[in-house]
Amino acid sequence: MGRDLIKLVDVGKSFQGRRVLNRVNLEVGASEITVIRGRSGAGKTTLLKLIALLIKPDEGRVFIEGLDAWSLREGERTRLASNAMSYIPQSIDLIPSLSVRENIELPALIRGVPKSVRERALQDVIGLLGLSNILERRVGTLSGGEKQMVALARSLVSKPKLVVADEPFAYVDDAGVETLFGVVRDLRDRLGTSFIITTTELYLKSFSGDKEYFLVNGSLTRV
């Protein structure tokens, strides 16, 4: 079990009496891209929030690097999640009035990371993603695809083992999807970063993961 970054065992979740997830099992290892496909309202966001420890399952267990997350104290659980993964929500929560640089650095700044360390991490990320030409632009002036790249850069500054991204291709065209997914594959290969990506694109083959799943009626099935 310790070899998995993430392991869900018979996880279930309901909201207001409606069953959203039903006995979900999932394993994510190192340097893997996992794509979860499902229609809007299928429960993809709920599943990702469970993985990121933002919400607690009604039943089942969530293991992060072999540790039973919800058996830990709150502070330990928070540290476990923040050290292991970064979460990119479906609504791109960048601050439009800040520059690209400021948005990328903000989480590290809030955590009190020293300036020299932040700057090195920033330079590493912008080099990997090729963002140097837009670094000083205000986020409000960027295209949807550019915003997704900035959100990805921000998630990588802390050098997580896993990036959990909720529909990151929702605001880009087909060409942008291919470009962005190419970046994801490159990051997996160069950094060993794992990704869990959700999408409403059920059959689009411009991107595919090392593992592919469908989420239908609360049940997760591997393709």
Overview of the structural elements:
With 223 residues, this protein is of the alpha/beta class. It has a single domain (6-222), classed as P-loop containing nucleotide triphosphate hydrolases (Rossmann fold, 3-Layer(aba) Sandwich). Helix content is 34%, strand content 26%. The protein has 6 helices and 10 strands. The protein has helices spanning 44-51, 74-84, 100-110, 115-129, 144-156, 174-191, and strands at residues 6-15, 18-28, 33-37, 59-64, 67-68, 85-88, 162-165, 194-199, 211-216, 219-222. The strands form 2 sheets. It has a 6-stranded mixed beta sheet with strand order 6-7-8-3-9-10, with helices on both faces. Strands 2-1-4-5 form a 4-stranded antiparallel beta sheet, with helices on one face. A hairpin with a 2-residue loop joins β1 and β2 (18-28). The longest helix has 18 residues, at 174-191. It is globular and about 45 Å long. The chain starts with 5 loop residues before the first strand and ends with a strand. The model has no long low-confidence stretch (mean pLDDT 89).
